[in-house]
Amino acid sequence: MALNKSMHPRNRYKDKPPDFVYLASKYPEFQKHVQTTLTGRVTLNFKDPEAVRALTCTLLKEDFGLTIEIPLERLIPTVPLRLNYIHWVEDLIGGQGNPRRGIDIGTGASCIYPLLGATMNGWFFLATEVDDICFNYAKKNVEQNHLAELIKVVKVPQKTLLMDALKDESIVYDFCMCNPPFFANQLEAKGVNSRNSRRPPPSSVNTGGVTEIMAEGGELEFVKRIIHDSLQLKKRLRWYSCMLGKKCSLAPLKDELRKQGVLKVTHTEFCQGRTMRWALAWSFYDDVPVPSPPCKKRKLEKARKPLTFTVLKPTLAELQTQAPSIGCTDPSPTESVSAWLEKILTDLKVLHKRVPCGEAELSLFLTAVENTWIHVRQKRREQGRHLRELPRAQPTSTCSTDASAPSVPDTDAPTPAPEEPTAEGSNAKERNERREPEKGADVKMESPTEPKQAAAGSPQNPETGQHFLFKCLVNVKQEENDVVVEMHWVEGQNKDLMNQLCTCLKNSLFRQAAKPT
């Protein structure tokens, strides 16, 4: 779960994701859908509806004592995401205690919100449903969990939201919840019109009946209808809320509430795995406290999070064995990895120096003044193809390489890098001096031992006047039998460049360890 740290603080899965190994050992039905990779990692195919259903039913049974049934042709909810919504409603209404009354608009076959709310907090629910199959399953799930005294499932006509459901009641409800149909048509449901072309396809399957995933005008018009109902019901509910599948729906809905004079408005984000959802809530009560919307803290934390990779014990052992070949006399894990990193950085002409750090770890401060690591893999392939095509090349046209050195950008590769590559030795120097500058380029001839100046507009060190691409701090520390390498951004042009360098360092270490000794 990539976004676990951004889940609601009270979500039980925030710091403790489901243990698939344990669940598989306890629940045979779940075990049938568990897969083990070649590396021994236990996974689940989230594109398989039966696997997703097995996980949901297993988590509800294991963590909440709930037994439910869900047909494959109807929406299969994910438990951690639904918990986020429940916890946010707790924040809206001021806590988990005291009997509260809520409405679940379109409860679905699982009836998951009422089941969780009733089980966790003892809340009373009015659960509405328009679909016959969903209604029958929801009612059965409530009854078999002995929660009929807390949850009333009612069948309502199509397009019924709040007004028709409450016309014969005078009860004041504390809140309403709703997962509106996200899509306006089949094309949107398949991601044709609604998904940015640059985004990867969804990692999980999209299940659900027509009434669950599609509505006229999509989620935007659906929620506007709830807003219209709330303008008539007003204080019959203390809080109105809806979950949204698209961030772009949030702003126009807040504008709609503003136009209608609704002042008590808030919103939040729900995170689960790689799934993001947004929620909107509003109230007509003057005395309700309004939870603050999420600040940019999550984005800042994401921006500050270091790039990391782990050198596992087998790889580490190989690097330690080969470390003396580069002059490393200290066989400790962190020292061996640091020595190889320094070797690779030197070959890449990335400026670096050791800096003081805490015990049991080593730190390097990096200043990259030129992108020498770009297209390393492509150039290596081009070099290999070039050699295969010329098996009888003259000996003078080849150059020897040090088998113990890590792979670095090859200046003789037939595919030129976007920036002028570095060179080693007098022949490389002569080739650089003979190279003509590209049209419109601002080229300054320099000694191979001096780092090239970056393009105008690059960050500049105020003390030395030296231009650079970026600066970062690399920490090397041991964790049990492995070594973890962290790259912390300091300043510069583009963090993608640090990401590229991180990948280059990792691949070079792993390739070095794979070389025969």
UniProtKB/TrEMBL annotation:
What are the alphabetically sorted keywords of the record?
Cytoplasm, Methyltransferase, Nucleus, RNA-binding, S-adenosyl-L-methionine, Transferase
Q: What class of enzyme is it?
A: transferase
Write out the GO cellular component annotations: cytoplasm; nucleus
Which region ranges are annotated with the description Disordered? 382-463
List the Pfam families hit by this protein, alphabetically.
Methyltransf_10
Q: Where is the composition biased (Basic and acidic residues)?
A: 427-449
Q: Molecular function (GO) terms listed?
A: mRNA m(6)A methyltransferase activity; RNA binding; U6 snRNA (adenine-(43)-N(6))-methyltransferase activity
Q: Where in the cell is it found?
A: Cytoplasm; Nucleus
Report biased composition (Polar residues) as residue ranges.
394-404
Q: Which residues bind S-adenosyl-L-methionine?
A: R82, G106, E129, N179
Chief location of this protein?
Answer: cytoplasm
The protein's Enzyme Commission number = 2.1.1.-
SUPFAM superfamilies for this protein: S-adenosyl-L-methionine-dependent methyltransferases
Q: Name one GO biological process term.
A: rRNA base methylation
Name the family the entry cites.
Belongs to the methyltransferase superfamily. METTL16/RlmF family.
**What does this chain do?**
RNA N6-methyltransferase that methylates adenosine residues at the N(6) position of a subset of RNAs and is involved in S-adenosyl-L-methionine homeostasis by regulating expression of MAT2A transcripts. Able to N6-methylate a subset of mRNAs and U6 small nuclear RNAs (U6 snRNAs). In contrast to the METTL3-METTL14 heterodimer, only able to methylate a limited number of RNAs: requires both a 5'UACAGAGAA-3' nonamer sequence and a specific RNA structure.
Can you name this protein? Answer: U6 small nuclear RNA (adenine-(43)-N(6))-methyltransferase
Species whose genome carries this gene: Carassius auratus
Q: Which gene encodes it?
A: LOC113115019
